[in-house]
Amino acid sequence: MQGDQSILDLGCALGQDVRQMIADGVPDHLVYAVELEAGFIELGYDLFLDRDTLKSHFISADVLEKSGPCAKLAGWDGKIDIIYNGRFLHCFGRDDGLLVAIRMTKLLNNRPGSVIVGECLGGKLDREVVAPVGKLHLYSVESFKEMWAQAAEKTKVEFKVDVQVQPAGQAQMAHFGEDVVSLVFWVERS
């Protein structure tokens, strides 16, 4: 990060990555976080004992905005320089994953070089799987790039997409099969 760049942790859970960013030197007032379950944000404050000192911006919001636009989230549109997306995109079916990519594009600063970075579970072959939490989508490298091409077409924004394949953990392979991998990605606005 440089200067006054803002960073958003989308799907922040307890906010542990938010706190790690701050420990690594990111000024807390430049860190934003979104989590669907407000209880997770509250548990994070209780766990880290920083409710009165942390200056980061947390909101509970449905990034899919299924019940209509979220005014709090819309207030951040075009203001985020870096979106961190750790183990989040595979939590949606393919159609909803595209909607999430489009929503992230709206949040992203309009400057070339603004980025969306992260990691998601993937597969050697593109497929949907059923998990205890619902339907998940395991992207292949090709289908992940295709999703971003579709998001770019719908939003009229150009992206450079880099995806690296890394081994998944034993627990993921045991649950989803031997072909599951981890996709580490960098999606940069051109």
Automatic annotation (TrEMBL):
Pathway listed for it is:
Secondary metabolite biosynthesis
Q: What keyword terms does UniProt attach to this protein?
A: S-adenosyl-L-methionine, Transferase
Keyword hit for Ribosomal protein: no
The answer on whether this UniProt entry bears the keyword Transferase reads: yes
PANTHER family for the chain: METHYLTRANSFERASE AUSD (PTHR35897:SF1)
Q: Which family does it belong to?
A: Belongs to the class I-like SAM-binding methyltransferase superfamily.
Q: What is this protein called?
A: Methyltransferase domain-containing protein
| Species this protein is from | Paraconiothyrium brasiliense
Q: Taxonomic lineage per UniProt? A: Eukaryota, Fungi, Dikarya, Ascomycota, Pezizomycotina
